[in-house]
Amino acid sequence: MFGPLGFSLAPQIRASRTLSKWFLPFSKWYTDRMGYRKFGLKYDDLLVEEREDVQRALGRLTQEQSYDRAFRMKRSIQSNVLRKELPKEEWLPESQDVRYLKPHVLEVAKEDTERAYWDNLSVQRQK
Questions:
Q1: The whole model's pTM is what?
Q2: Where are the domain boundaries for CATH 1.10.1090.10 in the chain?
Q3: Which residues of the chain, if any, have pLDDT below 70?
């Protein structure tokens, strides 16, 4: 439930067919109402960059992913300054809104917990 990206009930909802049936239409509606796709952004573009784990995850992106992210951010900032949404044909379709940064953030969090474990490991002499 609690992960490096915050509180989430998504795994429990996905595991239950009944809950998925109830929540999937609501989640699609809510995602559309958030409006970030109207500015050409992906969900992971909305993560707070000031967090250390996100900074390290951003450093692990490929050059193409970094360029695409920068382009999406610049284009959305320009649209926001002009107070206009992108033309409908430039909106990000649901099929392209994939979590490209989440695996890297989870990997960084796993490395941090492993590092904390090894840093606090105490070695005792056998008798």
A1: 0.82
A2: 36-119
A3: 1-3
